[in-house]
Amino acid sequence: MEPVTVYSQYAWLIPVFPLLSFLVLTAFGRGMRSAGTLVGTLGSLAALVLSVLVLFERMTAGDSAEYNYSFDWITIGSFQLNAGYDVTNLSALMLFVVSVVAFLVNLYSVGYMKEDERITVFFGYVALFTFSMLGLVLADNLLTLYIFWELVGVCSFLLVGFWYAKPEARAAAKKAFIVTRIGDVGLLIAVLLLFWYMPEHDLSFAAIQNVFGQTGTITEGITTLIAILIFVGAVGKSGQFPLHVWLPDAMEGPTPISALIHAATMVAAGVFLVARTYSIFEASPAAMDTVAYVGAFTAIFAATIGLVQNDIKRILAYSTVSQLGYMMLALGVGSLTGAIFHLFTHAFFKALLFLGAGSVIHGAHTQNIQEMGGLGRKMKVTAWTFAIGALALSGIPPFSGFWSKDAILAAVLESNPFLFVVGIVAALFTALYMARLFFLVFAGKSAAADKAHESPAVMTIPLIVLAVFAALAGFVELPWAGMGLLGEWLTGEEAAHASSGLVLVVSTAIGLLGIYLGWLVYVKGTISRDAFASRVPWLVRLLERKYYIDEMYHAVFTAGLRAAARALDAFDTHVVAGAVRLVSGAALWVGRAGIRMQNGQMQTYGLWTVVGLLALILAIAGRRFW
Fold first, then answer.
1. Tell me: the pLDDT tens digits for 31-85?
2. Which of the listed residues 56, 67, 289, 439 has the most CB atoms within 10 Å of its CB?
3. Of 474-483, 559-568, 594-603, which one has max mean pLDDT?
4. How do strand 67-76 and strand 79-87 relate by DSSP bridges?
5. Does the pLDDT of residue 498 top 70, yes or no?
6. Do the Cβ atoms of 159 and 138 come closer than 8 Å?
7. CA-to-CA distance for 217 and 197, rounded, in angstroms?
8. What residues pair up with 83 in beta bridges, in sequence order?
9. Which of 267-271, 396-400, 557-561 is least confident?
10. Which residue in 104, 126, 109, 98 sits closest to 26, CA to CA?
11. What's the pLDDT tens digit per position in 395-431?
12. Residue 314, number of CB atoms within 10 A of its CB
């Protein structure tokens, strides 16, 4: 029976649709303000439709539907470098996630960006980013992925700095671009090492899986080095410690971009990269441990900072960093299913939360949650959908985040009980800061509530759709025999993730405890809001200053590099340029001296003749003497 690949053969069209939107908006954007939003939205809709068809084909046809197409890209002598696209279960799932979120963000942006005079530029940038991310997902080799990887970074720079008139936006865009480039250097070196060590310099993911799946083909030391360098690239894109500092500042961009890039797609690219090259990591226990411990530390580190932030978008940003840490933790302990499952559910509930935050900002005209309160009465759709997203993030059953977080915690408990405790504590902090955010924004009352208003339907409909996904997406992978549909489909091996009643009970109890503590503090008032700050003010200041990581980077790197630059500038000005000035001055002096000697007066010529004769006599006499 012939494999069914009807739609997979045309998967290359999925990124082409948003690319066409970008080209049209770039060429004619100035004269099509009204139609520009339609062009951008239709491009993302076309990509979504074909992505859905490809996903259903992969779900119904099984492994026989895998499709790969490549062509000769660069030929140098006998060497050929190929490029192409690869449709696997993992890439089909990511195509669906990216295209769904991209379409809903485009639709939402029609209302959110309506008053912006550069709205067509915005939609053009979003279309270019969507093209780049979809191309990254479809890439069949590491070099092609790297090209799209860099293009995604450029789009992030453009979108974070979209409101470039704001100094904060310009600074955030530069910070995001520079910090992620640090990680990208690691990925580039990994690509070069793979090119050197792979047979026939083949960088395709299929070849990588075959080579690193064989023991002894490449030494363990080189394998570990390559894996760590790939992970460095993932650390930069996915905002893991210590390269996490760019992601919270990136909230200076428009809120729809926070939902698209910094919640569901670009920041997940690092997780996708590790999953795509997972055979390299599996061949190196040291690399797996590195991924696990960095992910666990990032999860609890970012969650503690989220407890004290007051900007609604920054709270969600640190939450994103923390949840990406969970995904890395899952990959590090060997649970590819848990990581991709959480990536899948997180994309929906975090995009929902960011777009809900945008709706709140649109209605209340502030981002400071301390200035909000009582918005639930005026913004019922936003409040209810935001609540679903918050419950999913907090790991409350039966919402999607509960099932995916349970899959991770179950795998961690089986592999490393210490990291399981870290994950549980981070889950408690997550539920607590989400309860704080929700109750301060939607409960109680404030002056902002009197002027607040619900967002238009073009903004609330995407919230409702994402809320449905946030509520139901977790049912694709349940912790019971025969119910692990996603894991078996992704790997072909796991029927269900190994869980236990202990993990289910503990994770649920921790989530409920965090919400209950938040209710006692911010609604009931049983516990004073200042109770913690009054006892350990130094710790609160430490969290508010984000552990002084930015200040440390400024002192060590920014100020250090500026001092080195000033020293080099001084050396260039006084030493290098001074030497040049000395040579030129000496030449001028010699020239002027020659002018005085050649003045046309016989007396002068006679004088210099005598001087020359005396010098010659002294030289001869001195030579004989010495």
1. 677 788 899 999 999 999 999 999 999 988 765 557 888 888 877 777 778 888 9
2. 67
3. 559-568
4. antiparallel
5. no
6. no
7. 10
8. 71
9. 557-561
10. 126
11. 999 999 999 999 999 999 999 999 999 999 999 999 9
12. 19
How many C-beta neighbours within 10 Å does residue 460 have?
21
What 8-state DSSP symbol labels residue 81? Answer: E
Count the alpha carbons within 13 Å of 380 in the hemisphere toward its beta carbon. 1
Single out the residue of 305, 311, 308 nearest to residue 172, CA to CA.
Answer: 311
pLDDT higher than 60, residue 575: yes
Q: Tell me what the mean pLDDT of segment 450-459 comes to.
A: 88
- Distance, CA of 516 to chain centre: 32
Nearest-angstrom CA–CA distance, 436 and 308: 9
Which amino acid appears at position 204 of this protein? S
Lowest mean pLDDT among 77-91, 109-123, 246-260: 77-91
Of 281-290, 397-406, 475-484, the least confident: 475-484
| 583 vs 469: CA distance, rounded Å | 74
Q: How many CB atoms lie within 10 A of CB 282?
A: 18
Three-class DSSP labels, 548-561: HHHHHHHHHHHHHH
Coil, strand, or helix at residue 68?
A: strand
pLDDT band at 494 (very low <50, low <70, confident <90, very high): low
User: pLDDT confidence of 224, banded at 50, 70, 90?
Assistant: very high
Label residues 72-111 b or e (16+ Cβ within 10 Å = b): eeeeeeeeebbbbbbbbbbbbbbbbbbbbbbbbbbbbbbb
| pLDDT at residue 481, rounded to an integer | 63
619 half-sphere exposure, CB direction, 13 A CA radius: 6
Residue 215 has what DSSP assignment?
A: T
The β-bridge partners of 76 are 79
| Pair 434, 401: CB distance under 8 Å | no
Rg of the chain in Å (alpha carbons) = 31
Residue 1's pLDDT is 44
Q: Residues near 597 by Cβ (< 8 Å), separated by ≥ 6?
A: 604, 608
Tokens (6 digits) for 516: 């209950």
Residue 159, token pair as written in the block: 């979108």
pLDDT for 569 equals 93
Q: Is 582 exposed, middle or buried (0-12, 13-18, 19+ CB in 10 A)?
A: exposed
Q: How distant, in Å, are the alpha carbons of 50, 208, 414, 490, 492 from that of 63?
A: 19, 19, 29, 10, 9
pTM for the whole structure:
0.90
User: Residue 511 corresponds to which amino acid?
Assistant: G
| C-alpha torsion 311→316→322→323, nearest 10 | 180
Query: What type of residue sits at position 84?
Result: G
Structure tokens belonging to residue 280? 């390299």
Tokens at residue 616, please?
């010659």
Which residues are bridge partners to 80 per DSSP?
A: 75
CA distances from 284 to 50, 193, 228, 281, 413 (A): 37, 16, 9, 5, 21
Q: Cis (ω within 30 of 0) for the bond into 285?
A: no
Give the dihedral sign, CA 253/255/257/259. positive
Position 172 pLDDT exceeds 50 = yes
Whole-number Å distance between alpha carbons of 86 and 67: 6
CB 148 within 8 A of CB 135: yes
SS3 state at 69: strand
Burial of 399 (0-12, 13-18, 19+ CB in 10 A): buried
Contact between residue 97 and residue 54 where contact means Cβ atoms under 8 Å apart: no
